[in-house]
Design brief:
globular, mainly alpha, single chain, 70 residues
Length: 70
């Protein structure tokens, strides 16, 4: 998948928007929420087709950077 870095970042933020809606906060997540979130990202990445897997694995590889950017 050849995406512009900005487009890839937007796709990586999608799951965070869902987390924000469920947690009721934009950036002050509880540690247990983040643990569950990342466990889910990894679990889904293992079963997802290739385009989605690439996005999810790139998220897991850059957890702290992604959180800071979000």
């Amino acid at each position: 998948m050849n995406l512009d870095p900005a487009d890839m970042r937007t796709l990586q933020f999608g799951p965070f928007w869902v987390l924000s809606a469920l947690a009721g906060t934009y950036n002050r997540f509880e540690s247990y929420e983040l643990v569950a979130f990342w466990d889910t990202v990894v679990a889904v990445a293992l079963r997802a087709p290739l385009p989605a897997r690439a996005i999810l694995t790139s998220m897991a590889a850059d957890r702290s950077g992604l959180l800071l950017d979000f």
